[in-house]
Amino acid sequence: MTESVITGSAMSGRGRRLYLELAQRRLRILAGISLLTLVCFVADLAVGQARYTSAEVLSALWDPAVPLAVQVILWDIRLPVALTALVVGASLSVAGVQMQTVLGNPLASPFTLGLSAAASFGAALGMILGVTILPASAVAFAIPANAFLVSMLAALVIYRLSQKRGITTEMIVLLGTTLVFTFTALLEALQYVAPNQALSAVVFWMMGSLSRTDWPQLAILSVILLFVSLVFARQAWAFTALRLGDARATSLGVAVGRLRLQGILLGSLLASVCVSFVGTIGFVGLVAPHIARMLVGEDQRFLLPASALCGACMLSAASVLSKTLVEGQALPIGIVTSLVGVPMFFVLILRSRKL
After folding, report:
1. Which of 188, 267, 309, 314 is at a distance of 20 to 30 A from 40, taking alpha carbons?
2. 2.60.40.1640, 1.10.3470.10, 3.30.365.10, 1.10.443.10: CATH of 81-319+331-354
3. Which residues of 244-275 are buried (b: 16+ CB within 10 A; e: fewer)?
4. Closest Cα partner for 269 from 140, 156, 170, 171?
5. What is the pLDDT of residue 330?
6. Residue 92 burial (CB < 10 Å; 0-12/13-18/19+)?
7. Which PANTHER family match (predicted)?
8. Spatial contact of 30 and 305, defined as CB atoms under 8 Å apart
9. What does pTM read for this prediction?
């Protein structure tokens, strides 16, 4: 009896040590991603038509004695764009990882569920037909409000249909794919009848641009990201249990239906706000969560911050690439994320097959 107690105690102590080692390794990975994200952020501030060294960038951020031209370029032009890349990248990735979690499908993301296509259609309604829910005096928020409203309506359609009896998570993803084609067709119909000026505006908006945001819009994005992340963090254990399957999660006391509703609606809120302000940016919400999952596993206490950091790092690096691929010209960020995201996604697929 005493011998078995000693053996059990030894095994318990060994298990505790293994868990602490795993947690420390995950924390080191998070620290490494944070450092890489910081490097990309500084590079985003330094790169442009006027190039600066890292030391000049850091000096301009803290020292008021630097030349006025440098302060204007960094504080008024580049800093809002660089911060937007971090916040939008983190938001899309957090939305993507929770949609993949609650739907149990690795292809779930704001892009594949039709939210981005719905937002594009909402923006086109305002640009081409002049249909907006806000008065003309609120011109800075009229198009984003349209995009947000239509995107959230698409999310509500997905949720309402997911409540029908016999609807599986695979069917929800197929429904999202149907919405993508539906809103794309409606958007193309609007483009067909649009005058040249409005057509150019819609096409440019669909390509995505981080430079559209100003400080008030950046504040809105940041507050919503903070709020949703805190809600998800409080439910980290429940979301982790959900990956074991509905039956096991229910046996552990998780309200699966309510948790799935929370994940879909809050993830849709994050994605809709981002797309409404910066346009369509694909693959971040799909690829970044998979990278984070490969690095730290399924434990949401580590997966949630890792996903946010991977998304922020990925979009910040894409922002740097957009300003360096073509000399003297900045490519739309949506084009860069797609060009980078497609090969990365292929690599992830091949790696998962080997595993």
Report:
1. 267
2. 1.10.3470.10
3. eeeeebeeeebebeebbebbbbbbbbbbbbbb
4. 156
5. 80
6. buried
7. ABC TRANSPORTER PERMEASE PROTEIN MJ0876-RELATED, FERRIC ENTEROBACTIN TRANSPORT SYSTEM PERMEASE PROTEIN
8. yes
9. 0.89
